[in-house]
Design a protein that fits this description.
The structure holds 2 protein chains of 2 kinds. Chain A contains 7 helices and no strands. By secondary structure, chain A is mostly helical. Chain A has a domain of 98 residues. In chain A, helix 4 runs antiparallel to helix 6 and helix 4 packs parallel to helix 7. Chain B folds into 2 domains: 145 residues, Methylamine Dehydrogenase, Chain H (7 Propeller), CATH 2.130.10; 132 residues, Kelch-type beta propeller (Neuraminidase), CATH 2.120.10. Chain B contains 1 helix and 30 strands. In chain B, the strands form 7 sheets. Chain B has a 5-stranded antiparallel beta sheet, with no helix packed on it. In chain B, strands 7, 8, 9, 10 and 11 form a 5-stranded antiparallel beta sheet that branches. Classes of the chains: A mainly alpha, B mainly beta. The interface between A and B is medium-sized, with 20 and 18 residues.
Chain lengths: 142, 332
């Protein structure tokens, strides 16, 4: 087990075979705080899942809108790395952008027991949402 | 959600602080367009679109909806040419100063909203014109000049003619491309008309060339030329048409202080001082199909140019920040 996985022992015990034995004591879980996600029936893990899915979709939308804006001739890619890959070709840029964000999404999912994963996913999704919303409104304004 | 709101708010903030947006007001028969601070420079009209230059910006306006678009921002470029426009596209040149002096040619397609950098070159380019989705320009390199055509969609370029003494006029409409040339500075101005469909060329001298006459660049539309000739001494101006199929010339009007004509192949429009002696001018029109000249609009003194396209007529008045463009329907 990796160091990351060690931090997940307690929640994993709830779904382990030992926990399903009738005589085995159930792990004690603290009561949900007022206003917390758990109180609304949404676990942090579920939220992280949807955030990461949204992040992945927004990343794909960002790629499509960037490519379309470049085709329209009014935009330039300000990210030097992406500019290089876009210069190499749309397929290369797609493989790189989708690939690197997919790896990031999977890494965050692996770290799902850590609160920082949720914070990072929230921040990244918000940034991507802002970028995609800006581009979408700009394209619609043409 | 917060991110999306921030993105939309950022866009709205950016738009609210932009200085390119024109002020377009609906009038009874059309539009009145002005550009606060920067003013309107050299507007052109074709089909449903008006295009003009304003400071470093190149702007178009859809005359059906009144919606304007910023299609070019020259930024630190030294100068821009006024845009040329067809019902399908608009075209302009941008010069960049400095050690890496270069000329950029941009084209904007009205249907796809796509802007293309057609060419970046160190050669000297001039007189951009557009017909349909093909653009043309004069390219000077050393003492040689070439007429170059470029398809906006494919980007394919070809040299239509080359030699010395080509220009200063370059005209295009439909399949016809015409350029002026003269063997010697004092020789009469000749015009070569190339039919790009059949590949045939016709050469002729512009009629009415007399010593001391100034030719305002002609307009080519629907197989006919319209131009204005001004006599240097008497300042009397004459507007003529010349049918390239029948080679028949026709005089439209002769008067002092005429504003150069606009022409769309069916109607000639121009501006002349009002006959009651006031400070206003009258925009006039005449249909080539027949009929007498008719007044279109009475406008304040200072008309710079007039334009016509189908059932719309436009006039550009004033200079600098006080300049404006009036657009109206052509009387039936």
């Amino acid at each position: 087990m990796s160091g990351f996985e060690r931090g997940d022992d307690a929640p994993e015990a709830a779904s382990s075979p030992a926990a399903s034995l009738p005589d085995a004591p159930l792990p004690s879980t603290p009561p949900p705080r007022p206003g917390s996600l758990a109180r609304h029936g949404v676990s942090g893990e579920q939220l992280l899942f949807w955030l990461l899915l949204e992040l992945w979709v927004l990343n794909a939308a960002d790629l499509l809108l960037t490519r379309y804006s470049l085709w329209l001739g009014f935009a330039t890619e300000s990210n030097g790395v992406m500019a290089y890959f876009l210069h190499e070709g749309t397929l290369t840029a797609t493989v790189f952008k989708i690939g690197i964000v997919s790896v990031g999404v999977l890494a965050l999912w692996r770290l799902r027991r850590r609160p920082t994963a949720l914070v990072a996913a929230l921040a990244l999704t918000a940034i991507f949402a802002a970028v995609v919303a800006y581009q979408a409104v700009w394209v619609l304004s043409l | 959600m917060v991110g999306a709101i921030l993105g939309v708010a950022g866009f709205a903030f950016e738009q609210a602080h932009s200085d390119w947006r024109p002020l377009a007001t609906r009038t009874v028969l059309g539009w009145r367009v002005s550009q606060p601070i920067l003013g309107i420079n050299e507007p052109v009209m074709a089909g449903d679109h008006l295009a003009w230059q304003s400071g470093p910006y190149t702007i178009t306006m859809d005359l059906r909806s009144g919606r304007s678009r910023l299609i070019g921002n020259a930024g630190d470029a030294q100068s821009l040419t006024p845009p040329a426009v067809s019902p399908d596209a608009t075209l302009w040149l941008q010069y960049t100063p400095g050690a890496q002096e270069k000329t950029l040619i941009y084209a904007y397609d009205f249907s796809s909203h796509r802007r293309q950098l057609l060419l970046e070159t160190e050669a000297q380019l001039d007189m951009p014109v557009v017909a349909g989705d093909t653009v043309y320009w004069l390219r000077g390199q050393g003492s040689a000049t070439a007429v170059v055509g470029c398809d906006i969609v494919s980007g394919r370029r070809r040299v239509l003619a080359s030699g010395s003494g080509l220009g200063p006029f370059l005209l295009a409409d439909g399949a016809l491309v015409a350029w002026s040339h003269r063997g010697q500075p004092t020789a009469p101005l000749n015009l070569t008309v190339l039919d790009t469909g059949s590949g045939t060329t016709t050469d002729f001298a512009l009629p009415g060339q007399t010593p001391g006459a100034i030719f305002v660049p002609p307009t080519l539309a629907n197989g006919a030329l319209v131009w204005m000739r001004v006599d240097r001494q008497s300042t009397a101006a004459t507007i003529c048409t010349y049918d390239l199929r029948t080679l028949a010339a026709r005089q439209i009007v002769t008067a002092r202080a005429l504003v150069a004509p606009g022409f769309d192949g069916a109607t000639v429009v121009w501006a002349q001082p009002a006959q009651d002696g006031g400070t206003s001018e009258v925009v006039m029109g005449e249909r080539l199909a027949g009929g007498a000249p008719f007044p279109i609009a009475r406008v304040p003194d200072g008309v710079q140019s007039v334009m016509v396209s189908g059932e719309r007529v436009a006039w550009w008045v004033g200079r600098g920040s006080s300049s404006w463009v009036g657009v109206s329907r052509l009387p039936r």
